[in-house]
Amino acid sequence: HELYTCQIPSRLESREEVIQAVLDAAAERGFQVDPHFDRLCLDEALINAITHGNANDPSKRVTVRVFCSQAAWGVEVADEGAGFDWRGWLDYVRDGLDVSRTSGRGLAIILGAATKVQFLDEGRRLRMIWQHDSS
Protein backbone atom coordinates (compact mmCIF):
# COMPACT_ATOMS: atom_id res chain seq x y z
CA HIS A 1 0.00 0.00 0.00
CA GLU A 2 1.28 3.41 -0.88
CA LEU A 3 1.11 5.82 2.08
CA TYR A 4 2.69 8.99 0.72
CA THR A 5 4.37 10.30 -2.39
CA CYS A 6 5.84 13.64 -3.38
CA GLN A 7 8.36 15.35 -5.61
CA ILE A 8 10.66 18.11 -4.46
CA PRO A 9 13.19 20.32 -6.24
CA SER A 10 16.84 19.52 -5.65
CA ARG A 11 17.30 21.99 -2.82
CA LEU A 12 18.59 20.89 0.57
CA GLU A 13 16.14 23.15 2.38
CA SER A 14 13.25 21.16 0.85
CA ARG A 15 13.99 17.97 2.75
CA GLU A 16 12.85 18.57 6.36
CA GLU A 17 9.15 18.84 5.55
CA VAL A 18 9.35 15.64 3.49
CA ILE A 19 11.20 13.75 6.22
CA GLN A 20 8.52 14.65 8.77
CA ALA A 21 5.72 13.68 6.36
CA VAL A 22 7.37 10.29 5.74
CA LEU A 23 7.78 9.58 9.46
CA ASP A 24 4.22 10.72 10.18
CA ALA A 25 2.80 8.49 7.42
CA ALA A 26 4.55 5.42 8.83
CA ALA A 27 3.61 6.24 12.44
CA GLU A 28 -0.04 6.87 11.50
CA ARG A 29 -0.11 3.37 10.03
CA GLY A 30 1.06 1.98 13.39
CA PHE A 31 4.73 1.36 12.67
CA GLN A 32 7.36 1.99 15.31
CA VAL A 33 9.41 4.87 13.92
CA ASP A 34 12.77 5.75 15.43
CA PRO A 35 12.63 9.57 15.51
CA HIS A 36 16.43 9.84 15.35
CA PHE A 37 17.85 6.95 13.35
CA ASP A 38 15.03 6.65 10.79
CA ARG A 39 15.12 10.45 10.38
CA LEU A 40 18.90 10.30 9.86
CA CYS A 41 18.52 7.61 7.16
CA LEU A 42 15.88 9.61 5.32
CA ASP A 43 17.97 12.76 5.57
CA GLU A 44 21.05 10.99 4.19
CA ALA A 45 19.03 9.49 1.32
CA LEU A 46 17.63 12.90 0.38
CA ILE A 47 21.01 14.63 0.70
CA ASN A 48 22.58 11.99 -1.56
CA ALA A 49 19.80 12.30 -4.16
CA ILE A 50 20.00 16.11 -4.17
CA THR A 51 23.78 16.63 -4.01
CA HIS A 52 25.21 13.55 -5.70
CA GLY A 53 22.35 12.34 -7.90
CA ASN A 54 20.99 15.64 -9.16
CA ALA A 55 24.16 17.70 -8.55
CA ASN A 56 22.15 20.38 -6.70
CA ASP A 57 20.32 21.23 -9.94
CA PRO A 58 16.98 22.74 -8.78
CA SER A 59 15.41 21.99 -12.17
CA LYS A 60 15.75 18.28 -11.35
CA ARG A 61 13.36 16.58 -8.98
CA VAL A 62 13.67 14.05 -6.19
CA THR A 63 10.72 11.68 -5.84
CA VAL A 64 9.88 10.16 -2.46
CA ARG A 65 7.44 7.28 -2.06
CA VAL A 66 6.40 5.63 1.22
CA PHE A 67 4.82 2.19 1.17
CA CYS A 68 3.92 -0.57 3.61
CA SER A 69 2.75 -4.12 4.11
CA GLN A 70 1.45 -5.64 7.34
CA ALA A 71 4.88 -6.00 8.97
CA ALA A 72 7.12 -3.58 7.09
CA TRP A 73 7.29 -0.06 5.82
CA GLY A 74 9.65 1.45 3.33
CA VAL A 75 10.75 4.49 1.42
CA GLU A 76 12.02 4.95 -2.10
CA VAL A 77 14.06 8.03 -2.92
CA ALA A 78 14.70 8.58 -6.63
CA ASP A 79 16.75 11.22 -8.39
CA GLU A 80 17.14 12.23 -12.04
CA GLY A 81 20.92 11.87 -12.15
CA ALA A 82 23.19 9.50 -14.03
CA GLY A 83 23.22 6.82 -11.33
CA PHE A 84 26.32 5.49 -9.59
CA ASP A 85 28.38 2.36 -9.10
CA TRP A 86 26.52 1.06 -6.05
CA ARG A 87 28.18 -2.38 -6.36
CA GLY A 88 31.61 -0.76 -6.04
CA TRP A 89 30.36 1.24 -3.10
CA LEU A 90 29.12 -1.92 -1.35
CA ASP A 91 32.58 -3.47 -1.85
CA TYR A 92 34.10 -0.34 -0.30
CA VAL A 93 31.87 -0.70 2.77
CA ARG A 94 32.61 -4.42 3.12
CA ASP A 95 36.35 -3.70 3.02
CA GLY A 96 36.03 -1.22 5.90
CA LEU A 97 34.81 2.32 5.67
CA ASP A 98 37.45 5.04 5.75
CA VAL A 99 35.91 7.42 8.29
CA SER A 100 38.36 10.17 7.35
CA ARG A 101 36.58 10.53 3.99
CA THR A 102 33.75 13.03 3.76
CA SER A 103 31.58 10.87 1.49
CA GLY A 104 30.17 7.38 1.76
CA ARG A 105 29.12 7.48 5.39
CA GLY A 106 25.47 8.28 4.64
CA LEU A 107 24.93 5.10 2.69
CA ALA A 108 26.78 3.14 5.37
CA ILE A 109 24.34 4.54 7.96
CA ILE A 110 21.40 3.58 5.77
CA LEU A 111 22.73 0.05 5.30
CA GLY A 112 23.14 -0.32 9.04
CA ALA A 113 19.69 0.99 9.94
CA ALA A 114 17.29 -0.39 7.36
CA THR A 115 16.33 -4.05 7.35
CA LYS A 116 16.74 -4.21 3.58
CA VAL A 117 18.34 -1.78 1.11
CA GLN A 118 18.02 -2.01 -2.66
CA PHE A 119 19.60 0.07 -5.39
CA LEU A 120 17.42 0.27 -8.51
CA ASP A 121 17.58 2.01 -11.88
CA GLU A 122 21.41 1.98 -11.94
CA GLY A 123 21.55 3.64 -8.52
CA ARG A 124 19.10 6.43 -9.26
CA ARG A 125 16.50 4.90 -6.92
CA LEU A 126 17.19 3.80 -3.36
CA ARG A 127 14.68 1.58 -1.56
CA MET A 128 14.89 1.22 2.22
CA ILE A 129 12.66 -1.23 4.09
CA TRP A 130 12.18 -1.47 7.84
CA GLN A 131 10.66 -4.58 9.38
CA HIS A 132 8.75 -3.39 12.44
CA ASP A 133 5.91 -4.79 14.43
CA SER A 134 2.79 -2.78 13.83
CA SER A 135 0.71 -2.01 16.86
Report on this model:
The chain has 135 residues and is α+β, with helices and mostly antiparallel strands. The chain has a single domain (2-131), classed as Heat Shock Protein 90. The chain has 4 helices and 5 strands, in the order βααββααββ. The chain has helices spanning 15-28, 37-53, 86-94, 105-113; strands at 2-9, 61-68, 72-78, 116-120, 125-131. The protein has a 5-stranded antiparallel beta sheet, with helices on one face. β2 (61-68) and β3 form a beta hairpin. α1 crosses α2 and α2 runs antiparallel to α4. 26% of the residues are buried.
Q: What's this entry about, in short?
A:
The chain is of the alpha+beta class. Helices cover 36% and strands 26% of the residues.
Summary keywords:
135 residues; 5 strands; alpha+beta; single chain; Heat Shock Protein 90; 5-stranded antiparallel β-sheet; 36% helix
User: In whole angstroms, how far apart are the ends?
Assistant: 17 Å
Give the mean pLDDT.
89
Indicate the percent of residues in helices: 25-40%
Instruction: Identify the overall geometry.
Output: globular
